[in-house]
Design brief:
The chain is mainly alpha-helical and 223 residues long. It is 52% helix and 4% strand.
Amino acid sequence: MTMTSPVGFPGQPVQVNARIDSPLSRWLWLVKWILAIPHYIVLFFLWIAFTVVTVIAFFAILFTERYPRSLFDFNLGVLRWSWRVAFYSYDALGTDRYPPFSLGEEPDYPARLDIAYPERLSRGLVLVKWWLLAIPHYMVLGFFLGGAHVGWWSGGLITLLTVIAAVVLAFTEKYPKDLFDLIIGLDRWVLRVCAYAALMTDTYPPFRLDQGGSEPTAAQERP
């Protein structure tokens, strides 16, 4: 398989980067679930479209070994939009800047996602990677994300750690950096698996918690 590798893609085709905005409001996080409702409504329909596009891409890859670029860009846009809303809300609470209603790259926003476009994808892998090969990751993500939803609470580790960070922020006016690095590492794992399951890459997501706001360099990725 040949893959285009833009600058900034040292090893992983899925690049997740984020930075803490400063200052952060001590109490805004209490109402972000309300403020994010317009995004949740739009994303509900975008994810329906995402699923349909992924099914179309499945057959395109199966017969042509290619993910149509227009479909790839759309699904990447949905993932970017979702990541910005997640970062604003209860998967990180890393910024008070309201997410833009955009499928574009938005390089000025503190949460960014890029996926290298693959020139070729395996016909064989497309049959099994999204369910069979990804099962070990799904088990891990079930712990990260949880399954019981009560309001904005997902019952998962990521939401729990984010709420802990919010409480610390409320009393100290500081977001603990080590906790931020851990939360972004967990979010990065989720997004890597999501891109793999959505057939956007053949690179198997590593079972590795890459913490911190910046993607590791190629040298850091070597064991």
